[in-house]
């Protein structure tokens, strides 16, 4: 129930918002005609938006606190829709069927531009799932993931530039080289964890980018590598539209392969060892698990998917240079994992879709799109810090039958 005290607090917040945004949103000076324009409608909208936004914020916080109290007292609660979506067959089967049909007809009913955006989103789904192995399952904070993405892309670019090799040869080469670089990174960070590990991986990512930018004889420097061929289809020459549709279905197949492998990995012996290491490294060692081997496996597996998407990225854009593999790329992939829910496959897919598609479709609101994007992230982290779909820990119940 809304109290007078809450109304007063929202009114004070509304006044502060109006006061702080008044010079920017209300006053507009035209120096050419010497006219000052007063946009009072903006002030009314800001006042109403901040007032009702404050009320909504307070209401959601209250509901969150009520849920926490109920959980503390052991009251049974209905699982959230996001959890039922991944567990209830009656919900996820129709949703999966509708999604599959939509994915199949998408490139035929939308433009090449829209298809390219969807390809990018699918690529980030694979990247997010790859990093999810390292961060979500193994609990190793990795801030240099873009370096392995670059290894895959430059593998294809250099193999084509020097030897004229195509996409299908470069794809396994990129994956293998990225996995080797992952193992190479794993050696110096075996004894590191937490913030120290994050700093080392960040340094590795920056070293890779700087080498690519300054070693002109090897990587063609900031000019990059151009005219990289798109994925081939039995030597048939494809138009731009058909090549885009072909790339779209190719990325869908690779995304499905990634989902299958990561899902099987979670339930495997290696997956359980990764989760055990994330929960408690010392206890994990005490149980006889070889931490060195598990860490190496985590870095190698995570890097493999980045290398694969690096090859696809080079084939999609037909041009690569070091500016495409900055720290922002690593931060974006990490944001996808955190927003979606660490360790959750469905969460990472939804997180990638939101983070890649939302800024594109918010272009109509111009310069305010990143403001809205940031506000959404803040709201998510306050009310769902575990991510959109939290990874629910499996529990086993032993039922004893009645003796006859």
Question: Topology, please?
Answer:
Elements: H1 4-25, E1 27-30, E2 35-38, H2 40-72, H3 81-87, H4 89-109, H5 112-137, H6 146-163, H7 167-186, H8 194-214, H9 216-219, E3 225-226, H10 240-266, H11 269-279, H12 281-286, H13 291-317, E4 319-320, H14 327-340, H15 345-361, H16 369-383
Antiparallel strand pairs: 1-2, 3-4
Strand order of the largest sheet: 1-2
Distance between the termini: 54 Å
**Overall strand count:** 4
| Average residue pLDDT | 84
Low-confidence stretches: none
Instruction: Give the CATH topology of the largest domain.
Output: ABC transporter involved in vitamin B12 uptake, BtuC
- Give a short account of the largest sheet: 2 strands, antiparallel
Membrane topology: Multi-pass membrane protein
Organism: Desulfonema ishimotonii
Main location: membrane
Keywords: Cell membrane, Membrane, Transmembrane, Transmembrane helix
Structure overview:
Helices cover 72% and strands 3% of the residues. It folds into 2 domains: 4-73, no CATH class; 110-383, ABC transporter involved in vitamin B12 uptake, BtuC (Orthogonal Bundle). It starts with a helix and ends in a 21-residue tail after the last helix. Helix 6 (146-163) runs parallel beside helix 8 and helix 6 (146-163) crosses helix 13 (291-317). The protein has 404 residues and is an all-alpha fold. The chain has 16 helices and 4 strands. The strands form 2 sheets. The chain has a two-stranded antiparallel sheet. The relative contact order is 0.13. The chain has helices at residues 4-25, 40-72, 81-87, 89-109, 112-137, 146-163, 167-186, 194-214, 216-219, 240-266, 269-279, 281-286, 291-317, 327-340, 345-361, 369-383; strands spanning 27-30, 35-38, 225-226, 319-320. The mean pLDDT is 84. A hairpin with a 4-residue loop joins strand 1 (27-30) and strand 2 (35-38).
